[in-house]
Design brief:
This is SnoaL-like domain-containing protein. The chain has 3 helices and 6 strands, in the order ααββαββββ. With 123 residues, it is an alpha+beta fold. The chain has a single domain, classed as Nuclear Transport Factor 2, Chain: A.
């Protein structure tokens, strides 16, 4: 159950779309990368579903950007990929925030989406 190039490609496909929407400060587009019933835990109280994701990212600074690196992937089931990411959230007026993010991706129809998102602050 170790990382494979195929699983990393799935993660990049989803996380690149997420990053693009975060960088553009488009909260509804960010939320579209999540399943309808996604469990979302940012650095504030958790929410379930796309409306909570959109509200969370709408409240973020307009200049926030994300840069990520995949640390690990696993495929616990055929239609599920788990990933552990190192993410730097950048800002123009404050220091970069480095966090770890775990995402559980689930294929729905022909598209992979985030079904679970958990942020851990470092240090």
């Amino acid at each position: 159950m170790s990382s494979t190039p195929q699983d990393e490609a799935v993660v990049r496909e989803v996380v690149d779309r997420w990053k693009s929407a975060v960088d553009a400060h488009e909260p509804d587009r960010v939320a579209d990368e999540f399943t309808q019933d996604a469990i979302f835990q940012g650095l504030h109280p958790y929410s379930v579903g796309r409306p909570g994701v959109a509200a969370y990212y709408d409240a973020q600074p307009l200049d926030m950007t994300a840069a990520y690196r995949i640390l690990e992937t696993r495929r616990p089931a055929e239609e599920v990929v788990l990933a552990y990411l190192d993410v730097d959230f950048g800002f123009t007026d404050r220091p970069t925030l480095n966090v770890r993010i775990s995402v559980l991706l689930r294929r729905e129809d022909a598209r992979w989406r985030i079904a679970h998102y958990q942020v851990s602050r470092l240090g």
